[in-house]
Amino acid sequence: LRLLEAQLQDQRREHEEEVEALKNQVDVMKEEMEEQQQAFLQTLQLSPEAQVEFGLQQEITRLTNENLDLKELLEKLEKNEKKLKKQLKIYMKKVQDFEAPQAVVPAERRWHERNMQVAVQRKEKDFQGMLEYYKEDEPLLIRNLIT
């Protein structure tokens, strides 16, 4: 019962905080609307040429602010792109490091591997149990198991 009361009080407090934040937001919007109404009334009192100039000035201000926001977004995206490219290089290096030892297998061992594969394929039908392999072949075996 006390747990439910505590949860109810927490929810009530959160709700009151949300209501307060929304009231503040409404107040800010009312102030902005009043400022816009004042600016609109002032422009109506201006001559037609002055109204056009004022409108252009407002549009220039709006576009300048929009450009600044876009520049900031572009900088964030470029920073993220650099980070992702760096991660890609790290992962590519890891893949190359993983595949490099497999590429340097001597011809003699490759021939032995082919013979082992053939033997395993033939015995596969009637043989179950453990197989012997070289420690160096472990990444290759794991890759083949996955694929």
From TrEMBL:
Coiled-coil boundaries: 1-94
Keyword set, alphabetical order: Coiled coil
Protein name, per record: Unconventional myosin-Vb
